[in-house]
Amino acid sequence: MDAILTGKKVLVMGLGRFGGGVDAVQYAARAGAQVVVTDKATPEKLSDSIALVSDLPGVVFHLGRHDAEDFAAADVVIANPAVPPGSEFLEVARRHGRIVTSQIGLFFQSCSAPIIGITGANGKSTTTILTAHLLDRAQAPASRRTYGKIWLSGNIGDRPLLTILDQISPSDLIVLEISSFQVEQLAQVRKGPNVALLTNLTPNHMDRYGTFEAYCAAKEGLFQFQPLEARTPAVSIFNAEDEIARSWLRKYRQQPGRKCLTFCADDVSKEMRAVYALPGRANLSNLAAAMTIAKCFGVSDQSIRNCLPDFKALPHRLELAADAGGVRWYNDSKATTPEGTMVALSAFECPKILIAGGYDKHTPFDELGKRIASNAKATILIGQTAGMIADAIRAGSPKAGGADVRFAASLAEAVELASRLAVPGDVVLLSPACASYDMFENYQQRGRMFAELVCKIRQQS
Q: Per residue in 333-378, pLDDT tens?
């Protein structure tokens, strides 16, 4: 266990309604720390997360607000990724000389195995899980592998980081999806992965960063702090089709101790495409990225091809929810950026009815509006951003009469409306281009509700 926590007063900032801080609380408590958990949410809203840690020794809860005195009194503060680095409470801890760290910072400081870190605006979850799949399955049997167990974690669902540390061997490989918030936390401890990959960069989280340049700067930390002093070179991998990635390639490719590689969708051969089920060029790019990483660890093309048929679309990512009456319904609830929705629209050649809209992250919709106007048969808009997306579609419409834009007060109403508009051969696509927090707890709940509503439509058809 971590020596900086043993016997110390540890403050975990942000338990989270979905367990974001549970891992840190468990790790600190098992290290013998006195743990205080602070969160602005009430105990009622945090009940599921509290249940996971309430029986641990030495854990107390200060909920409903943050108290500056807690931050001044702690020896170590472990901040949730959602906490902005400039938080006034973290500044209190720093002024008092306290250690401010994070779940991912502690993991990188203690992990004995090589780490593969994958970030980007779109495609990072699919690329991360596909990378782990290729590394885990492509070199079977295990006796022929040059590495041990594959661990998949990071910014993916409920997969813990800290509580697996004592199970990891130096010969294992760690595959992590890393968000921009987590990259910022790694930069604070000047740590980066042995292998770092950027899928792409488009505007996201403008409500936190304000500008695209600031968002890109946060992401770049993944490459800035890779371990160049290691006996084997750090590997930096960039998407050759992304403008920002190409600029970073030029910046880093001559740096001693670093090996730079590129990938693009066209790298995927016809033979690979024939056994790869995920639709669209963006998913080919995800596959090319995962293949590039796998080949760094000696995985052959033939091994990759053999295991691709076993890989399925991830939940809420262009996931086929139903095929009812000749209409295919796709759940792409994870598309929380305009670029993600544009990727989804480009994945299908048939007529498309789009359901979009949600929480406002202050992301521009101009380009999305043009793409929807030229690619969607009809668009049904919900949530806070419905009006803004509608304005962008109308502004970008080349048609004299304008695009077919409808509004719905709920997802249920949107699905019902889509069922009346759709005819055999159409695709109905939930791809919101926005976060879910205005109407749902998270994108997973939004996607599950969509699937349930579509199931009812299928039963009626």
A: 999 999 889 989 998 989 999 999 999 988 899 999 999 999 999 9
Go through the domains of the chain in sequence order and give each one's CATH number. 9-102 (3.40.50.720), 111-310 (3.40.1190.10), 319-460 (3.90.190.20)
In this structure, how many other beta carbons lie within 10 angstroms of the beta carbon of residue 167? 9
Using a 10 angstrom Cβ sphere, with 0-12 exposed, 13-18 middle and 19 or more buried, the burial of residue 91 is: middle
Q: Residue 449 and residue 451: Cα distance in Å, rounded?
A: 5
**pLDDT tens digit string along 197-226?**
999 998 888 888 999 999 999 999 999 999
Q: Residue 278 — φ and ψ, nearest 5°?
A: -75, 135
Residue (of 32, 23, 21, 29) closest to 60 by Cα position:
29
Of 394, 388, 401, 395, which Cα lies nearest the Cα of 433? 388
Tokens standing for residue 216: 């890109």
Give pLDDT tens digits for 99-150.
999 999 999 999 999 999 999 998 998 999 999 999 998 765 554 678 899 9
Nearest to 182 by CA among 10, 68, 23: 23
79 bridge partner residues: 13, 102
pTM for the structure as a whole: 0.82
